[in-house]
Amino acid sequence: MREHEARDKKPNIVFFIADDHRFDGIGAYGNQVVQTPVLDSLAAEGVRFTSIYTMGGQTAALCVPSRACLLTGTNVFQATVTEKEVKLGETENQQLWAIHPSLPTWPEVYRREGYRTFGIGKWHNGKESFARSFSDGANIFFGGMGDHIGLPIHQYDPAGHYPTDQAAPSEKFSTELFAEAAIDFIQQYEEEEPFVLYVAFTAPHDPRTPPQAYLDLYASDHIPLPDNFMTEHPFDNGEMHVRDEKLASSPRKPEEIRQHLAEYYSMITHMDEQIGRIVQALDQTNRREQTIIVYTADHGIALGQHGLLGKQNLYDHSIHIPLIMQGPGLPKGAVAGGLCCQMDIFPTLCELTGTSLPQTVEGKSMVRMITGEDTKSRKTVFAVYKNVQRMVSDGRWKLIRYFRSGEVGTNRTQLFDLYNDPWETRDLAEDAANQEQLQRLEDELFVWQQSVQDPMLHERGSEG
Fold this sequence. Notes:
calcium
């Protein structure tokens, strides 16, 4: 390819998304225990975003709404098909929590723009949306979780049919399986059009069974407990008995949580190495300089923080995610500290690549924040969990409102000063000096709930 043609050609995108990888599970984000040299290098060569939040969801399988928001650039109440729509049968073959058929995904937009879009790995948002998003793919897993060896894997079907009984169990560890499909794609790609390579790992989601060599890197008795480790959560948050919370004994035992963390870090280090192999393939095929690399996660996870184990809560360990971008058009070694939402990734990619943005997208581009023209993208971020929790944060002050639902939950509010209490251990909701902050955030949460038609407003209103 001639030099001017390479310069004028739109950049490729390699998009990595992990499952359950919280924001502080990377060395570049300040974790001094986990070994992530590849992600650290990408952060040093690109942009590290420090305040990206998910919007939670209305189901315990939070990867579904989180990925739907990311893929469509819309809020958590709009991104997926609802129970009401399934009951009404508004479209054929609707699957609960699948991406709403009226919303284009960002890979689908790039496909329309002439990109070759190639999907690999986990897709938990309905088979129909995968079919319209990707022009090709390999080693596709339609589901939420499973053993990392033996996952039911589909190969790409141009007709978009993926019968469950045609999936074959994988023989390799999922992270390696997905990485090798990505490497094969990069090495064999000869077309002129740019590509989107979407690689969705099932790591570091449980079952956390990393190859032994990676587990040997972390002696569990040397793993420090987080500053907000608790043996029990101090009250019923409305979701104390979900599957994730039963993966360790209760009350929590320090040695057991250390083992969970050792396995978690092992999975992350193994994934980091596989990402390094994919990046190396870009280097070897001379595509690195024409490729935007993105690394993020669907959501985080507790693993002992606040006495919790899963992600079905609205503390930062569960809704605060990593985001790293590196490549053409992006500064090197930059830190973007402004408050942003997961759905802002879609419009940011479109602006970076000069791609038309659908009118359905609610997210805001972060490009001005990346370049330093603006210090923040958003004034506040919001999140939900089922009908029992709601959250609003302005980056410093954070409010979590809990509701009682039937026999579970507690009617109460928490208020945290994240500047002085980043581990969220000191609840200031009853502090008279902070009542103005609490009322302000409550008002902002109510206005947002109205704007997105939060169904809980109607539910709570009818109760009153």
